[in-house]
Design goal:
This protein is mainly beta. It is built from three helices and 15 strands. Strands 3, 4, 5, 6, 7, 8, 11, 12, 13, 14 and 15 form an eleven-stranded antiparallel β-sheet that branches. Strands 1-2 form a two-stranded antiparallel sheet. Helix 1 (32-47) packs antiparallel against helix 2.
Length: 288
């Protein structure tokens, strides 16, 4: 059975977006998780090292990515004894455009792992998060909030409550298993959904994603819990806790801009009822 993925390999070191890379924001536009997934894949594929943690990922999503052949490029900006900074770029190619159009750019910071300094430091108290009873191959995202238990019915969570998600991200390319770093970044893109989704739907569209990790996630399923949301004059900032079955492993952060003219109302979409053999579950957070 073919593996579900955001992209499939193409010619000339390019990839083609699949139906699962499509967004609900507009026709032929790609979703944030897909673009971030490809950037993560490119940086890690070319520059990962044993004993080094990809501790920070930042991607600027400054131009809408479309359903056209897509390529990546990377450059090492700093290669030190304990820090390595890699710049990654996402290019898209219309017809015979060899150079392509730059649609996203960012950095991945790899830090050399060692031991913690002596002494105790303040940290956020660990709060155990009850997880849903879901099967390992269930590709649908589970949701819960301060009033409702876990469910895959997104319409039940269109409110102003603090919410959390538990997901099993899909692959970047069909023949390459997800790495823990890719899994962390793909799920972390839901920081925008977790913090900007409220009454009436989601009307802020994020312009970036920053992921900070102290370790890599363990297991196939990972979670996102909204932590802070600020908004004023059409601009929002949000942060989220990234967690797995063992607790918090990182932080997600996004800034976003008002996009309420194309506001997405999740009460009008049902992930299960609209799933087809050729497309993604419409309304799933992977499609935002």
């Amino acid at each position: 059975m073919p593996q579900t993925s955001f992209f499939t390999p193409s010619d000339s070191c390019r990839v083609d977006p699949t139906d699962f890379a499509m967004s609900l924001w507009g026709p032929n536009s790609l979703n944030g998780p897909a673009v971030c997934a490809l950037a993560t894949y490119a940086a890690e594929e070319a520059h990962t090292r044993e004993g080094w943690l990809p501790a920070r990922f930042t991607l600027e999503l400054f131009k809408s990515a479309r359903r056209v052949p897509t390529s990546t490029s990377t450059e090492v900006l700093r290669d030190g004894r304990r820090i390595r900074v890699v710049q990654v770029r996402i290019h898209q190619h219309e017809s015979d455009d060899a150079a392509g159009t730059l649609v996203a750019q960012g950095n991945v910071v790899f830090l050399k792992q060692s031991t913690n300094p002596p002494g105790a430091r303040w940290s956020r108290p660990a709060e155990p998060i009850p997880l849903p009873q879901s099967t390992g191959d269930d590709q649908f995202t589970w949701f819960s909030d301060t009033e409702n238990d876990w469910s895959q019915d997104m319409s039940a969570f269109q409110n102003s409550n603090r919410r959390r998600m538990w997901s099993n991200p899909i692959r970047v390319l069909p023949d390459d298993r997800l790495t823990p770093f890719q899994r962390a970044v793909i799920s972390a893109e839901a920081t925008s959904l977790a913090t900007n989704w409220g009454e009436g739907g989601i009307g802020f569209i994020n312009c970036d994603l920053t992921v900070a990790l102290s370790r890599l996630p363990i297991g196939e399923r990972v979670g996102v819990e909204s932590d802070a949301h600020l908004e004023d004059s059409g601009v929002s900032a949000g942060t989220a806790v990234l967690f797995d079955e063992h607790g918090q492993y990182g932080i997600g952060m996004v800034t976003a801009i008002d996009n309420s003219h194309a506001m997405i109302d999740f009460t009008k979409f049902s992930p299960r009822s609209t799933l087809t053999a050729d497309g993604p579950p419409v309304g799933d957070d992977r499609s935002v």
